[in-house]
Every structure is written in structure tokens, then in C-alpha cells.
Automatic annotation (TrEMBL):
The lineage of its organism: Bacteria, Pseudomonadati, Bacteroidota, Flavobacteriia, Flavobacteriales. Pfam families: Pterin_4a (PF01329). It comes from Halomarinibacterium sedimenti. It is an enzyme of class 4 (lyase). It catalyses: (4aS,6R)-4a-hydroxy-L-erythro-5,6,7,8-tetrahydrobiopterin = (6R)-L-erythro-6,7-dihydrobiopterin + H2O. GO terms for molecular function: 4-alpha-hydroxytetrahydrobiopterin dehydratase activity. NCBIfam families: PRK00823.1-2, PRK00823.1-3. InterPro entries: Pterin_deHydtase. Its EC number is 4.2.1.96. HAMAP family: Pterin_4_alpha (MF_00434). Keywords: Lyase. PANTHER family: PTERIN-4-ALPHA-CARBINOLAMINE DEHYDRATASE. Belongs to the pterin-4-alpha-carbinolamine dehydratase family. This is Putative pterin-4-alpha-carbinolamine dehydratase. GO terms for biological process: tetrahydrobiopterin biosynthetic process.
């Protein structure tokens, strides 16, 4: 799978909620009321990521979740990253 160009990425970012392109990845973050709420979203994302065989890089500290998406074997952002980002947006509601 080929990585998208920066122009393609910036255009497709308009389809997502509060994601940005930095450090060769799609990035977003969430803040929740509790650790349980953060972990609940992580669990739902994990099931969807497993179906796609495409897994996020993420960091969770208490009620804060930061997510970075890139396709490592393509060395950049691909359609797979946008597909997972859209699913994450839907799950986060």
C-alpha cells in the first residue's frame, strides 16, 4: 500500500473530527471524565482495529487518550489510517 501525499492527507482531514497531520501520522486526543471512560473507548477501538488488522499507536494516562495513526509498512499515512480514524470518530461520538 502506497502512502498518501501530503496534499491528499490534508484534503481528507476535512472528513474527520479534530484530527491533524503531524510527524508523518494522523493524530487526535480525547479527554474523559474518568479512566474507565477512556479505557472503554480504547476497548471498542481495539476490537475494530483487530478486524482491520491495523492498530493505533496510543498513550493513555488516567482520563486522557492520545492516538497516532500511520501505516508502518508503507512508512506513512494510507487509506487504512483514514478508515480507522473514521471508525474512531464514530465510536467517540
Amino acid at each position: 500500500m502506497k502512502p498518501l501525499t501530503e496534499l491528499q492527507i490534508r484534503t481528507k482531514l476535512k472528513e474527520l473530527n479534530e484530527w491533524e497531520y503531524a510527524n508523518n501520522a494522523l493524530q487526535t486526543s480525547f479527554e474523559f471524565n474518568s479512566f474507565k471512560d477512556a479505557f472503554s473507548l480504547m476497548t471498542r477501538i481495539a476490537f475494530e482495529a483487530e478486524k482491520l488488522n491495523h492498530h493505533p499507536n496510543w498513550t493513555n494516562v488516567y482520563n486522557y487518550l492520545e492516538i497516532n495513526l500511520s501505516t508502518h509498512d508503507a512508512d506513512g499515512v494510507t487509506e487504512k489510517d483514514f478508515k480507522l480514524a473514521k471508525i474512531i470518530d464514530e465510536l467517540a461520538g
